[in-house]
C-alpha cells in the first residue's frame, strides 16, 4: 500500500496538470536552426537526441517536451519551464538552470554535472541513475526521497550518497541512518550497516519514537543473522526489509 501511495504521489501531479498548448512550429524551427530561442513556445516539442549544446533557451516554455538524450550541455535555461519534460539520458553538463522549473521532469540517467541549480525547482522523483543532483541546494527531505528512489532501483551506492548528503543537513534524523543501513546491508557491508542501525536506534530512543526503535531492532536482528547464520533460519530478509522500508515511508513521504 505504501508503495502504491508513493507511486501515486509521483504520477498524480502529472495526471491532473492542465493541458498545455502544442509547440509553435516557427519557434521550433528557429531553435533548431540557430539555437537561439528566448521565451519560445516549445511545449510538447519533439526534441529527442537534438543537438542543443550552448543553446539560448532563457524563459522558454518546454513543458512536457521530449528532450530525451538531447545534448543541452552549457545551454542557458534560466527561467525555463521544463515541468513534466522528458530529459531521460539528456546531457545537461554545465547548463544554467537558474530559476528553471523541473517539477515532475524525468531526469533518469540525465547528466547534470556542473549545472547551476540556483533557485531551481526540482520537485521530481524521476531521478534514477541521474548524475550531478548532489550539487543541488535541496532539502534533506528531498535528498532522502531521492536516496529512497535509488534504493528501490537497487542503485544502492547512489542511494548512500544521497543519504550522506541528507545526514549532513539533518544529522539527528534517525530515518536517514536507518535507510542508509538498509542500503549498506544490501551491499553486504554488514559492519557499516550495523553501525548505522545502532545509531538510528539511539536517535529514535532519544526522540521517543517506538516505531523507529522497533524498526532499527528488526534490522539489527537481521544483520546479526547475516553475520551468524543459522541452519534453520530460512530466508526472511526480503520481507523484513520491505516491512522496515514501509515504516520509513512515514517519516518523509
Explain what this protein looks like in three dimensions.
With 253 residues, this protein is mainly alpha-helical. It has 2 domains: 124 residues, Pectate Lyase C-like, CATH 2.160.20.80; 113 residues, Tetratricopeptide repeat domain (Serine Threonine Protein Phosphatase 5, Tetratricopeptide repeat, Alpha Horseshoe), CATH 1.25.40.10. The protein contains 8 helices and no strands. α3 runs antiparallel to α4, α4 runs antiparallel to α5 and α6 runs antiparallel to α7. The longest helix has 18 residues. It is elongated. The N terminus is likely disordered.
Chain-wise SSE layout:
Elements lengths: L1 H14 L9 H10 L105 H13 L3 H14 L4 H13 L3 H17 L3 H18 L9 H16 L1
Helix pairs in contact: 3-4, 4-5, 5-6, 5-7, 5-8, 6-7, 7-8
Work out the strand percent. under 5%
Low-confidence stretches: 1-18
The averaged pLDDT comes out at: 89
Number of domains: 2
Radius of gyration: 21 Å
Q: Distance between the terminal alpha carbons, to the nearest Å?
A: 13 Å
Descriptive key words:
single chain; 253 residues; mainly alpha; Pectate Lyase C-like; Serine Threonine Protein Phosphatase 5, Tetratricopeptide repeat; 2 domains; 0% strand; disordered N terminus
Summarize the structure.
The chain is mainly alpha-helical.
